[in-house]
Amino acid sequence: MLSAHLAEKIISEVKKLLTEDIIIVSKSGTIMASTDKRRIGNYHEGALLAAKDGESRIITEEDEKHLAGVKAGINLPVFLNNEVIGVIGITGSPSDVSPFGVIIQKMTELLIQENHYSELFQWETRALEGFVFEWLQQRSMDASFLERARLLEINLESKRQIILLQWPQRLEPLLRNKWVQLLEWPEKKSNDLFVRWGNERMILLLEVNETIQSREKIKRFIQFSNSIIPGLQAGVGRAVDGIHVTQSLQQAERALKSIVDDQFFCFDEDLILELILDELSAETKKDYLEKTISPILEEDDLLITMEELFRQNHSLKKTAEALHIHINTLHYRINKIKTLTGLSLNQIYDASALYLAFLILEKSTKN
Q: 252: phi > 0 → left, psi -120 to 50 → alpha, else beta; which?
């Protein structure tokens, strides 16, 4: 409960307030940390008595003569959940150091409580992450898995919808304070599960009752998350039975990859062409690009022109304006695309083939 590392941390914080020597002692009477390094590991009888009695103990110069390892000052028991877990001692004239005793005692207890709850939070987080990771690999649920779910109070029977969040790669791994802020989402229910998914991702397994309401709730969650981590993006899978959560995760990953331009979220249920692209093998995509736009891959002006033409729904006027070029220059580029690829942007079949090639190229570049 009270480790040497934590004892050193407490000494470091408390000595910012006092010039007197300070010690942290285990409840068995061993000095764990001290501003005087020579005392570490020594036995301290006064601290042992303070721990046993659960009360502060003044150490006088007279006590130095018959109590082992003590110096004049004050020893104060430190409590966690109403149990003595150690003692903090302040060396000096009892009349000088006693007024600081209670303040230092409470400060030490607060540091220990913070560390305790931090460790508890980390333990619970790791336990949940381990369970969810296993859940997403499960093809069946054996008795051991079901028992762990019961201990973690996780409902496996309700429908789940996975939201996969990814923050910008420029950011460091998510700090605990940001993580806690996300967990404090006001609309979070007891059966909604948050877990980290690598250094740059997080998963929300949302318990779903009504799909329409959940869609709006998810949008609010993504907006809330973006207020904490600007630049965050989210892919949303579909609602599935608990045993099929892996499907929802795969859909969320597909939706995340499909985010374009200034979007910051995408629902898998809204995808159309992307459903086909996701099923194509890397070899098929490579062959398709070879047969379509490979001749213009080094022609940046032609690729930019084609991209803008698709964005402007084939409006020549708007495309020329957006690219800041003369309409004749645009016609020249469109004709050059036809010459090099053999496909005409003025023919619906050819234009569709080029658009599909452009989507494949865009996704492969992004990934």
A: alpha
